[in-house]
Amino acid sequence: MAQQLAIIVLVDVGNALESRTLTGNTYLFDNMKLHGSLNQGTGELVTAINGSYWSDGSQAGEQVLNWLPYSLGSIPPTVPRGYHTTRARAAEKEALAELANLSEKAGVANGDTEAALTRIRQTVGTRVNGASRTAALSGQRVLDVTGRVVSDHGQDTHSYPAPVITDIFGEAVDEKIIYPAEYGSPDLVTDGWYWSATIDTSRPGTYSYKMRIQLHELIQRAGEWTWEPVNLTCESKLRITAEPKRNGFTGAGVGYLPIAPAAFG
C-alpha cells in the first residue's frame, strides 16, 4: 500500500498580499522530519522521500504526496462547514432585534434614528462579491478571526479565505519524478479539493518544484467590495533516497519477526 506523505503549506496571507510575494511569507511542514526532512517551518523545506526498495533490491510500493494549504491568522479550517453562514445569520438576527427596538421608539429625534441605523448597518456588514474560481466566496459576509462580522472593510482586521493551490510544476514534474493532479474529496476541511502526486522513487536525487497559489484580496470596485484573486508562486524541494526498507526490530528485511525460544518457556 502506498505511504501517504503530507505537506502543510501555511501562508501569511496579509503580508503576502502587501508585499506581493510568498518569499518569507510561507511556512512548510511535512510528516517526514524523523526520516530526514530539512528546514521544517520555513519556506526552504526539503521533504525526505524514502526510496521504495525491499532489502532484496526489488522495488516496493509507491509513495504519495498530499499538499494542504492553510492561512495564518484566519479562522481555523476545522470549524463547521456552515460557520460563516451561521455567524452572518446571528448578526442579521441581532440587527432585526435592534430594528424592532427602534420601531418601538419611532418618536425619537432624527439624529438619534440615523445613528441607530448606522449602528445596525455596521452590525450586519455588507456582502462581498467573489471574482475567483472559488464561487463559495461570493455573497459571503466578511468575518474577523474571532468570528464577528466586519463592518468597516477598509479599516477592520478581517479573516482571509484559505489559499488555493492552482498548479504544481517545475523540475520534479518536468523530469517525471512526481505526477501531480487535483482530486475531489469528501473532506470538508479542504473544501472538497486537494492536490496529490505519486512519486517515482527509482531515481534518487534532489528535485525542486513550484506551487502556484491563489490568494484573495478584499478591494472596493465600483462601490462594491470584492474578493480579488492574486496569483503568486513559491518553491520547495524533494530529496529521494534509495535505502532499502528494513525491519525496525531486526535491521533485516521486512518480514516475520524472530521469536526467542525463551518466549515458549
Search tags:
265 residues; alpha/beta; Immunoglobulin-like; 2 domains; six-stranded mixed β-sheet; 4 helices
CATH C-level label of the largest domain: Mainly Beta
Q: Could you state the oligomeric state of the chains shown? A: single chain
Biggest sheet details: 6 strands, mixed
CATH superfamily of the largest domain: Inclusion body protein
Structural class: alpha/beta
| Strand portion | 25-35%
Shape annotation = elongated
Terminal Cα separation, in Å?
A: 37 Å
How would you explain this protein's 3D organization?
The chain is an alpha/beta fold. The protein has two domains: 3-74 and 160-240, Immunoglobulin-like (Sandwich); 83-141. The chain has four helices and eleven strands, in the order βαβββααβββαββββ. It has helices at 13-19, 83-104, 110-124, 171-174; strands at residues 3-11, 26-30, 46-49, 63-71, 127-130, 140-141, 164-169, 178-184, 193-199, 205-221, 224-240. Strands 3, 5, 6, 7, 10 and 11 form a six-stranded mixed sheet that branches. Strands 2-1-4-9-8 form a five-stranded mixed sheet, with no helix packed on it. A hairpin with an 8-residue loop joins β8 (178-184) and β9 (193-199). It is elongated, with a radius of gyration of 26 Å.
